[in-house]
UniProtKB/TrEMBL annotation:
Domain Xaa-Pro dipeptidyl-peptidase C-terminal residue range list: 330-565
PANTHER family the UniProt entry points to: COCE_NOND FAMILY, PUTATIVE (AFU_ORTHOLOGUE AFUA_7G00600)-RELATED, PEPTIDASE S9 PROLYL OLIGOPEPTIDASE
TM annotation in the entry: none
One Gene Ontology molecular-function label: dipeptidyl-peptidase activity
Keyword terms: Hydrolase
Residue stretches in coiled coil: none
Protein name as catalogued: CocE/NonD family hydrolase
Amino acid sequence: MSEIRTWEVGAQRIRIRKDLRVPMRDGVELAADAYHGVEDRPRPALVALSPYGKELQALALTMPPQRRPSPMWDGCIEAGDIARVVAEDYVHVIGDLRGSGASGGEHIGNYNAGGVPLGQDAYDFIEWVAAQPWCDGNVGMIGISYFGSMQVFAAAERPPHLKAIFVSGGHYDFYETTYHGGIMWFMPRAAREGRGGDSGWAFTDRITSRMLETCSAEELKERVARRLADPDVAAWPNLVHVLHYPKHHEAWFDIVMNELDGPWYEERNPINLAKTIDIPVYLQIDQGRGWTLDGHIELFNVLKGPKRLDIGAYPPMQSRPWVEEHEKMFRWYEYWLKGIDNGVMDEPAVNVFVEGSREVVTAAQWPPKEVEYKALYLRPRRKLSPEPELMGAEHAAPDGFYQAPLTVTDKVEILSWSTEPFDQPTELIGTGAAHLFAEIDQDDTNFILRLWDTAPNGSRQLITTGYLKASHRELDERTTEGNPYHPHTRAVPVEPGTIEEYVLRLYPFAATFRAGHRMTIELSCDEPLVDEHNSLLPPDAFHLPVGRPVTHKIYRDAAHPSRLVLPFTTRQATGE
């Protein structure tokens, strides 16, 4: 039974319509809360949908924003600043997805609820909101991460009253959300299961594994055995547990069982659905979340209607409750939902914050400047140089490291190479590639590369990253200079002792290396659990370590030109 309450936040009074029941076309009802001003009149509505629980989102009224690495930071309070939304004269409607919170129905797998596409439920939800007497018929959406992905699902269904969306930090290609370069990433589990400070999905007993629903018992047994035969999986106790007890962690079981890209991911890939979107879309993402930045750019390029791409400054994680970017959001909705010509559509389509120079570069497209791809070569004595190595392998002996499994050590071995200090500001904007000629003594490993801006005093900031599971080294037809793509549709074991060329995709970035600064790259097969960058990420935001001992040799001689291929802008960067 719904009820109406009044809440006082400082001098502000907020009317709350609590526990509304929103009917779906198949009879299931979703639960929602609506927040608005106390004056009884219709307003535009901003809809937030997720499985994280509307009660958790209400903490935005009482909890001050927490920045990482605060222990109070909770990754799932993402629906926005309720009091601010109400103060801007919108109705803030926060709903629980099917099978979560107080809603009916059940949830199956990822981005699929009870066999019903999430976009279909979003369509029904939005149209119901638009028909309420407290809404004036103009609906937008709000929220980051999962809430952002839901905006794309909703817009792809084209509900008539959804006039525009503002997406911050969404996740799109779900394979790229869970496997970076083919290497499993643990943060999706943290978000879904409440590990390490994330509240997680607000499910009780109404979530079902899609794999358990669609595979025969014999097929499941064979696939589970195959996954347990992977030394990386077998060395990680939590994954062994998940595979033996799938009903305990159904959604994570599905992810672990699908280590290759393909139909299981593509059928629920928002970028595939976004080709039908023609309403105005504003995409915002901060640097330092490489895979997500890549997805925003890919989505921006697919969209057909009015669109904006805003790439903000490092660090990667915003506060919780989420309060950033609201100024931009309200300008967008003031134009599209309230009909106020505030000039937002006269501004450039693409805005990019450049680290180092701290400039904002604008353009009509990504990348916002012309770039020229140039190589920086790995050289002896851990040098990174624009000049290639002239010596052969007999004289330029490979660099190398031996990594023992983290079951027997807590030390992560890291190789590094650095440029000389830049003598003038040097700007790079775009994607990049790392070509590594490597020999390993096992049939697989991880390659994890991180590129840093190192200041004269030794302080540093992460600029971009690249990941590649060695057995996923195949490239596909989309690959161009400095912009590699891997299909990730099959794993091809490495023949131990052979030298292979591995091409890592370096996620998009924008940075000026100031005079006196160095570029440093680090290469490892695992990653340190805590460093300057990882401390800014949510708990468990690391990748599945290699579960076997591996010796790596990195060749960088005349016959094996290991190198970075990077997007240097074609004009000189601004001063310091």
